[in-house]
């Protein structure tokens, strides 16, 4: 690889492409594939994000991709929804180093590696989300999870918010494990004295329609878990996805879904025979910004 002064991100990624099947080579192929599927009008891009990627700095990158029409469907965890809303309500994630978690708890601080949340921000979150739930439940007593997330997006006023932008752009967000989060906890508490119910299986009708309406589907998977499986399995009845990019730090030896190689999905008909698959092993908060910047530059140069 030839590194020069004042290189652009794309120039760096193209140099990485000279390193064969190692990590740098995978980075190039994933970036190229991302640019290809984004530019293909026949391909719907399904973005799956798991782990603390909103606290980890990807909030605006994902928001901008949705706003610019680069994402057609999104899958995520309840935690990322919670942290997006926390920031929409004026809260934040704070950087620092601390070696005493018991003391952090006493100080009302929650830790995510070297990032921190404040209990006072979550107190605002609880107040705001309860008011929003009250307004939503006055209009609807039964919603699918996707419909509920869209209603949340329509209830906040923050142009930097993923939920806000997805609602305005008509991009559906699916979060089948949403109840396993602070947002889910607040919903549970709200339903103790309010009539309101979420229909989890109802999302599958709409999601299946989107899969069958799409000529081709490409999944972009950051992390693993339930969002990864939902993004892939939703395409099972159509024979699988046509392309997929996976960024993960998990390993496949344990048989876990999160670390499973994308090629394994072919055995389940979650990825088609002949599908284009690229896995990059590493931290998505490092890899994905470079990948997106490189893909955007590729697209810009091809226009």
TrEMBL record:
Provide the E.C. number(s) assigned to this enzyme.
Answer: 2.5.1.46
Give me the Gene Ontology terms describing cellular component. cytoplasm
> Per its UniProt entry, what is the enzyme's top EC class, as one word?
transferase
Q: What is the protein name given in its UniProt record? A: Deoxyhypusine synthase
GO MF terms, alphabetically ordered: deoxyhypusine synthase activity
> By its UniProt entry, which PANTHER family does this protein fall under?
DEOXYHYPUSINE SYNTHASE, DEOXYHYPUSINE SYNTHASE-LIKE PROTEIN
Presence of the UniProt keyword Transferase in the record: yes
């Amino acid at each position: 690889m030839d590194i020069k002064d004042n290189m652009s991100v794309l120039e760096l990624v193209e140099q990485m492409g000279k390193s064969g099947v190692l990590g740098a080579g995978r980075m190039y192929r994933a970036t190229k594939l991302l640019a290809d599927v984004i530019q293909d009008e026949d391909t719907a891009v399904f973005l799956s994000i798991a782990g603390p990627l909103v606290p980890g700095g990807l909030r605006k990158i994902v928001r901008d991709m949705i706003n610019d029409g680069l994402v057609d469907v999104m899958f995520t965890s309840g935690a990322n929804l919670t942290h997006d809303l926390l920031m929409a309500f004026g809260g934040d994630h704070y950087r620092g180093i601390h070696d005493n978690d018991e003391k952090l708890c006493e100080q009302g601080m929650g830790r995510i590696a070297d990032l921190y949340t404040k209990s006072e921000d979550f107190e605002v979150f609880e107040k705001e989300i309860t008011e929003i739930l009250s307004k939503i439940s006055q209009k609807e007593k039964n919603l699918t999870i996707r419909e509920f997330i869209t209603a949340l997006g329509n209830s906040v006023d923050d142009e930097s918010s993923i939920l806000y932008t997805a609602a305005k752009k008509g991009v559906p967000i699916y979060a089948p494990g949403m109840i396993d989060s602070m947002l889910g906890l607040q919903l549970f508490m709200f339903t103790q004295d309010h009539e309101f119910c979420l229909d989890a299986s109802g999302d599958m009708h709409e999601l299946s329609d989107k899969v069958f309406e799409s000529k081709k589907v490409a999944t972009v998977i950051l992390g693993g878990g339930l969002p990864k499986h939902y993004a892939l399995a939703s395409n099972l009845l159509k024979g699988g996805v046509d392309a997929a990019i996976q960024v993960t730090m998990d390993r496949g030896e344990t048989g876990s879904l999160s670390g499973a190689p994308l090629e394994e999905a072919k055995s389940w008909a979650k990825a088609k025979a002949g599908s284009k698959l690229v896995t990059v092993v590493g931290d998505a908060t490092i890899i994905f910004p470079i990948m997106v910047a490189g893909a955007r530059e590729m697209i810009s140069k091809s226009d």
